Amino acid sequence: MPRNVTLKMHLRASVLLFATCALFGLSLAEAQTFPTKPIRLIAPYGAGGSYDLIARIVAQKLTEQLGQQVLVDNRPGAAGRIGMEAAVRSAADGYTIMTIGNTQVIVPIVYGKAPYDLARDITPLTTVATIVNVLLVHPSLPARSVADLVSLTKSKPNMVRFGSGGTGGITHLMGEYFKSMSGADISHVPYKAGIMSVNATLGGEIEMIFLNAFQAAPIAQSAKLRALAVTSLQRSRYLPGVPTLDESGIKGYEVLEFHSLAAPRGLPTDVQKRLHAEISKAVSSQEVGEKLKAQAAEPSLRSPQQMRDFLAAEHEKYDRIVKTVGIKPE
User: Fold this and answer.
1) d(C-alpha 274, C-alpha 10), whole Å
2) How many CB atoms lie within 10 A of CB 256?
3) CA torsion sign, 157 to 153 to 106 to 100?
4) What is the rounded average pLDDT of the residues 50-59?
5) I need a surface site. Which of 5, 103, 198, 308 has the fewest CB within 10 A?
6) What was the pLDDT predicted at 27?
7) Does the pLDDT of residue 197 top 80, yes or no?
8) With 0-12 CB in 10 A as exposed, 13-18 as middle and 19+ as buried, what is 170?
């Protein structure tokens, strides 16, 4: 082969190798320097609730770790659909992430459609925390255990009414799940907001409610309502004397309020790994642990694949409840 041809071939190979190394080096540099600007955390909820507060707890710690602001962007409305639509349509570059909870799983099932598909439109990062729910009854009700409650409802049909913050919401589905698994004869009373159902139960207008532990613990401890069971498979440290529904005879009953973080579909793997590692580090810190405890929340970390599997299992559970009961939005 002529020498000039050989030289040209070597030159082309060198240029190609240099270009490949340059691109690879750029990718490594981007992964090592991310983030270089503030990150937006879209919370499809209003300010002040548990999802907003826990998002802010994690965002504050991530800001310290990353050296860039992680700003919570509240986008409430339409059962979270407004915020989720904005989130999944954002660039998949790591600079927009989102909070996902029970509502995001339930909405597509109850309403039949949503501007997102959790199996398709997100890149999971990790779950962050869970909060147990509590079955509470008015103290005038002659039931001091779950067995008492179920027996009472069967002997006096339509006597016990449970409240919720609206048809198809998590507090409604918890009641329906309890009804289907226990055989209790209870009826649903929807209210326009969760706080209205709480006040109705406190006032004796209705007899029963499911409420997360942050709200339920002080009410139960003051004896304004009686706590019969918690909805986790293990007892809660916030109400250690209250049995689980599982140990009360409703085997396998588990409904937790969960908090998780995700990014839009298509997030580069190196950025996903970086965000997962940083969020895990934040949630595992003593500082965040203490703040979660103040919200009656338990740290809960999963790998991205474990989170995807968890969301699929939650979807299957709620889909089964909705189809069994035939729930229609009001």
Assistant:
1) 38
2) 20
3) positive
4) 95
5) 5
6) 46
7) yes
8) buried
39: nearest Cα among 62, 16, 20: 62
Predicted TM-score (pTM) of this structure = 0.85
Q: Is the peptide bond before 35 cis (omega within 30 degrees of 0)?
A: yes
Burial class (CB in 10 A: 0-12, 13-18, 19+), 8: exposed
| Residue type at 317 in one-letter notation | K
Tens digit of each residue's pLDDT (9 = 90 or more) over 221-270: 999 999 999 999 999 999 999 999 999 999 999 999 999 999 999 999 99
Contacts of 27 (CB under 8 A, 6+ apart): 270
CA atoms of 121 and 87, how far apart (whole Å): 10
**Residue 304 to residue 126: CA distance in whole angstroms:** 5
Residue 149 carries which side chain, given as an amino acid letter? Answer: L
What average pLDDT does range 188-205 have in this prediction? Answer: 93
Question: Beta-carbon neighbour count of residue 200 at 10 Å?
Answer: 18
Query: What's the pLDDT at 30?
Result: 52
Span 290-314, mean pLDDT? 96
CA separation, residue 323 to residues 64, 102, 144, 178 (Å): 45, 17, 31, 15
* Predicted pLDDT at 40: 98
- Residue 82: what residue type? I
Strands 226-230 and 122-137, by their bridges, are antiparallel
Q: Are 70 and 61 in contact (CB under 8 A)?
A: no
Q: How confident is the model at residue 8 (pLDDT cuts 50, 70, 90)?
A: very low
